[in-house]
Write a structure and sequence with these properties.
The complex is a heterodimer of chains A (247) and B (138). Chain A is of the alpha+beta class and 247 residues long. Chain A folds into two domains: 101 residues, Roll (Ubiquitin-like (UB roll)); 139 residues, Alpha-helical ferredoxin (Fumarate Reductase Iron-sulfur Protein, Chain B, domain 2), CATH 1.10.1060. In chain A, 34% of the residues lie in helices and 13% in strands. Chain A is built from nine helices and seven strands, in the order ββαβββββαααααααα. A five-stranded mixed sheet of chain A has the order 2-1-5-3-4. The longest helix of chain A has 21 residues. The radius of gyration of chain A is 22 Å and the shape is elongated. The radius of gyration of chain B is 23 Å and the shape is flat. The mean pLDDT of chain B is 88. Chain B folds into two domains: 65 residues, Fumarate reductase/succinate dehydrogenase, transmembrane subunit (3 helical TM bundles of succinate and fumarate reductases); 37 residues, no CATH class. A two-stranded antiparallel sheet of chain B has the order 1-2. The chains are: A alpha+beta (247), B mainly alpha (138). Chains A and B meet through helix 5 and helix 9 of A and helix 1 and helix 3 of B. The structure holds iron/sulfur cluster (SF4) and FE2/S2 (inorganic) cluster (FES). Iron/sulfur cluster binds next to helix 4 and helix 6 of chain A.
Chain lengths: 247, 138
C-alpha cells in the first residue's frame, strides 16, 4: 500500500536571492501522529535543508513555533496534520511581523513592548527579608493567574487587525501582562503602568475585534484584559475629575 | 499626551506587508466586527429621528401630525426597519461582550459571565416592557 501524502505550500523568502516571497510545494507523508511542525522538520531533514523556521519544545510551552496555517495563527506543534485533509496546507510566517527569512519573523518590536509595561512587581517600599514573605490567598492568586499563563507566542498580534494597521499598538499580550501585575495583590505599580498604557499607542487603540482571545493557545483572554483596563482607566479619569484632591 | 517617536532601524532585507483596505472581507469574524461597528450609525439615526420628533412638539399639533405622516411613508418604514434590525444586532453583540469588561465579585465568588450578560438582557426586557406599557396604556 502506498503511503498517503499531503501537500504543504510553504512561504519562502530568501532575501539574498529574491525581493518577493514565493511559495514552494512539498509533498509529505500524512501520518496520524504528526503535527504540522513534524512535517516541516521532515522537509528540513529529508527534502530541503534550506527551509528556515523556529521551534523548540514541541509541546506548546516555549511559544516559538507560531505560524499562519491556512490564514490562521496557530502553534504548529499543536496542529495535527490530519485535520487539514485533503490539503494543500498553506504555511506562512506570522502575519503583522516583518519577515527575516522563510517562516522566521522579527520579534524585537514585541520584546520591546513587553518590557515597556514594567512586567515586575513594583512596591513603594521593599519589605525587609526578616519580615517574611508576601502572602497571597488562593482567591488573590486566581485574580491574575490566567494572565500569567502567556507563553509569548505572538499569535494574538498576528490575529489582531489593529496590530496590522497600527504597528505601534502595544498589543494584546503586553497589555495582558500589565494586567497580570496590576491584579497581583503584592503589586503597587498600576498607576505607573496606566501612564504608559493610557497613551495613544495603548489600550484605546483596541476596538475589541476579539480575535486575540480566539487564537490564544493558553486561554489568557487578552481581549478581556484590555476591556477591564479600559474600565479601570475610565474610573480613574472620573475619580480625578470628581475628587481632584484625592490621590 | 506625547511620547518620543520610536524609530525602527532601516532593514532593507526584511519583508514587510501592508494590510489591504478590504482586509475585513476575508473572514467571517471580521465582517461581524465591522458590521457591529457600523451599527453605531443607525444608533445615531434613531437619536436624530427622536430629536426631530421632540422638535415638532414645540411647533404645535400640525408639525407633529406631519411628522407622524412622514413616519408612515414607505421610505420611513424601510429606514426604521433596517435601523431596528441593526440596533438589535448592536445590542445583542454588545450585551454578549459586556462580561469581557466586567468582572464582578461577591465575596469569594466571581459572578459567571453568562449571568452578567443575562442581567443586561433582563434590563433590556424590563425597559422595553415598561415603555410598551406606557405607550399602550396612554
Ligand atoms: S496572550 Fe496568548 S496568544 Fe498572546 S502571546 Fe500570550 S499565549 Fe500567545
Ligand atoms: S515548539 Fe514550543 S510551543 Fe511549539
Amino acid at each position: 500500500m502506498t503511503q498517503q501524502t499531503i501537500a504543504l505550500e510553504v512561504f519562502r523568502y530568501r532575501p539574498e536571492e529574491e525581493h518577493e516571497p514565493t511559495f514552494q510545494t512539498y509533498e509529505v507523508p500524512l501520518k496520524k501522529e504528526w503535527v504540522v511542525l513534524d512535517a516541516l522538520n521532515y522537509i528540513k531533514d529529508e527534502i530541503d535543508g534550506t527551509l528556515t523556521f523556529r521551534w523548540s519544545c514541541r509541546m506548546g510551552v516555549c511559544g516559538s513555533c507560531g505560524m499562519m496555517i491556512n490564514g490562521t495563527p496557530v502553534l504548529t506543534c499543536a496542529a495535527f496534520l490530519e485535520t487539514y485533509q485533503p490539503g494543500p496546507v498553506r504555511i506562512e510566517p506570522l502575519a503583522n511581523f516583518p519577515v527575516v527569512r522563510d517562516l522566521v519573523i522579527l520579534m524585537s518590536d514585541f520584546m520591546e513592548k513587553l518590557g515597556r509595561v514594567k512586567p515586575w512587581i513594583i512596591t513603594e517600599k521593599e519589605k525587609p527579608v526578616a519580615e517574611g514573605e508576601y502572602l497571597q490567598t488562593p482567591t488573590q492568586l486566581a485574580d491574575f493567574k490566567q494572565y500569567s499563563m502567556c507563553i509569548n507566542c505572538m499569535l494574538c498580534y498576528s490575529a489582531c487587525p489593529v496590530s496590522g494597521l497600527e504597528p505601534d499598538f502595544i498589543g494584546p499580550a503586553a497589555i495582558a501582562l500589565a494586567q497580570r501585575y496590576n491584579l497581583d495583590s503584592r503589586d503597587e505599580g498600576s498607576a505607573q503602568r496606566m501612564e504608559i498604557l493610557s497613551q495613544d499607542d495603548g489600550i484605546w487603540q483596541c476596538t475589541l475585534v476579539g480575535e486575540c482571545s480566539a487564537v490564544c493557545p493558553k486561554g489568557v483572554d487578552p481581549a478581556g484584559a484590555i476591556q477591564r483596563y479600559k474600565v479601570a482607566s475610565t474610573n480613574d479619569w472620573w475619580r480625578s475629575k470628581l475628587m481632584p484632591w484625592g490621590k | 499626551m506625547s511620547h518620543p517617536t520610536r524609530y525602527r532601524k532601516y532593514h532593507p532585507k526584511l519583508y514587510r506587508t501592508r494590510m489591504p483596505i478590504f482586509w475585513w472581507v476575508r473572514k467571517w469574524t471580521h465582517i461581524h466586527f465591522i458590521t457591529r461597528e457600523l451599527t453605531s450609525v443607525f444608533v445615531a439615526f434613531y437619536a436624530i429621528e427622536l430629536l426631530f420628533l421632540l422638535r415638532t412638539l414645540t411647533r404645535g399639533q400640525e408639525a407633529y401630525d406631519a411628522f407622524l405622516a412622514w413616519l408612515q411613508t414607505p421610505l420611513a418604514l424601510a429606514l426604521n426597519t433596517i435601523a431596528f434590525l441593526m440596533i438589535a444586532f448592536h445590542s445583542i453583540t454588545w450585551f454578549n461582550l459586556a462580561p469581557k469588561a466586567l468582572v464582578i465579585r461577591v465575596g469569594e465568588l466571581r459572578i459567571p459571565p453568562v449571568a452578567i450578560a443575562g442581567m443586561n438582557y433582563a434590563g433590556w426586557a424590563v425597559f422595553s416592557a415598561a415603555l410598551a406599557w406606557l405607550i399602550l396604556s396612554a
